[in-house]
Amino acid sequence: MTRNAYYVTTAIAYPNGEPHIGHAYEMVATDAIARWRRLEGREVFFLTGTDEHGLKMVQTAQREGLSTRELADRNSQRFRDLAAALDISNDDFIRTTEERHFRSSQEIWNRMAAANNGDIYQSTYKGWYSVRDEAYFDADELTDGEGGKKLAPSGAEVKWVEEDSYFFRLSAYQDRLLKLYEEQPDFIAPAERRNEIISFVKRGLQDVSISRTTFDWGIPVPNAPGHVMYVWVDALTNYITGVGFPDDKSEQFKTFWPADLHVIGKDIIRFHTVYWPAFLMSAGLPVQKRVFAHGFLTSEGKKMSKSLGNVVDPFAVVDEFGADPVRYYFLREISWGQDGDWGREKFVNRSNADLANNFGNLAQRSLSMIAKNFGGQMPPRQLGSGEDNKVIAETILAIERMTVAMATEQLHEAAAELVAALSAANLYFAEQAPWGKKDDMARMGAILATTADIVRRAAIAAQPFVPTAADKMLDLLAVPADQRQLEHALDPDLFIAPQTQLPPPEPVFRKFEQAKAG
Ligand code: MSP
Q1: From the CB of 239, is ligand 1 less than 6 Å away?
Q2: Is any ligand 1 atom within 6 A of the Cβ of residue 330?
Q3: What is the pLDDT of residues 168-182, one digit of tens each?
Q4: 175 CA to middle of ligand 1, Å?
Q5: 290-313 pLDDT, tens per residue?
Q6: Pairing mode, if any, of strands 143-144 and 150-151?
Q7: 222-253: buried (b, 16+ CB within 10 Å) or exposed (e) per residue?
Q8: Using an 8 Å Cβ cutoff, are 460 and 487 in contact?
Q9: pLDDT by residue (tens digit) across 471-501?
Q10: Ligand 1, residues 134, 193, 261, 268: which to mutate, most atoms within 8 A of Cβ?
Q11: Residue 66 — φ and ψ, nearest 5°?
């Protein structure tokens, strides 16, 4: 039996600056997955938060003339605000500076230190470190930059570091990791990423430096004065803190750990599919089930950067267009797992075509005809009417295909199925032309009831994508709150009861103008 609980997380972002559109994308995609699982009737726990330790936070705060804590407090709140603005349904928001997380990180550390006669040992670290990536690099991974600078693959400058440090015996985990990837073929998605990681691990793993002594903004290493944990050790641990660790006997931990899915960007896949499972194995904890690495977003075709001035402010976009259309664009326009782009013109086209013209019009036209011709009371369907039954059956099939796509989180395919079903329903509506059936009101009513039912089914399935608009549509169709689960969209025998009084119809989606040139 598959368990009913489902635990999904985003990466936790560094609050060293304002959230950007890439952060918004990750939140929205993960939220749509969480909402879909709830729609399926699963008990979901969805965690997001901020990753507040590390040298990057310290240095940014110094530049801004703030204490590190002030910087963390200010910007962590901005990530919380972003989640609210985007209608993200997270069950908790973790900050790695919280007391619960200190206890959790120190406990996992102690367990790793105690494992296998000690997976943690003391030595000296000598090597390259990139503060922007908060990562160590081998010399052969670096390239030469201007002025004799050495650059990490991300383009960030690396600095030579030599310090006393604790190490984690990652080298001992090569075989166990390879076995994990083999036994759990869906551990890493998409598949290209899995192959990359397998060949990386096959090349051999080096032990990792997991403590720092040159600054103190971090979680103290137990019984090791002067050492704070390397930020990634505590960052990854957030996923278990969020469900109650170190209390691993708690109901919450037993219910939700191991996590079903960590959603992350492709730049941090090694941390999640090599380090994190090795830490967990070392600590004697079950390993998460799956990691999905999404692509990177550019802005109007270019990499976002402060110097290009093309960093898109997600708050401004949501203010202008509302959360639902922005969410929909991310989920439909960007192929899940691939890189994508935020472009205003593409956004306006996509939102107008799929939401306003396709979905919105179908709802508005059918509901306003029910209001006008039937006093807002749902007319009866005509049993045995071939065209009507066919279009309903097609809608159900499309929603079934959405569930198949969502089983492997193929968000853009699921969204495409939904829109295809709505296009088919629009075609049905145009062909049946209910406005020309004034002399056969029973037929007119049946067409409208059939169309309204498709809108109902589609709106149920659309909730994870455009939650506010979908809810509003379901309200306009007088669908009770307890009949908005996936099973109600898929049930061939469930319809809105004839005579149900509907509220006055209102448009649900706006149409947007392209910005005027010049
Ligand atoms: N703090 C680490 C993650 C720790 S998880 C235990 C981190 N933070 S981050 O703020 O740099 O990135 C947070 C998430 O946003 C990551 O999954 C990252 O891949 C993602 N993105 C950052 N820039 C992005 C884009 N331009 N586009 C899409 N996602 C991007 O890494």
Answers
A1: no
A2: no
A3: 999 999 999 999 999
A4: 29
A5: 999 999 999 988 888 877 788 889
A6: antiparallel
A7: eebeebbbbbbbbbbbbbbbbbbbbebeeebb
A8: no
A9: 999 999 999 999 999 999 999 999 999 999 9
A10: 268
A11: -120, 165
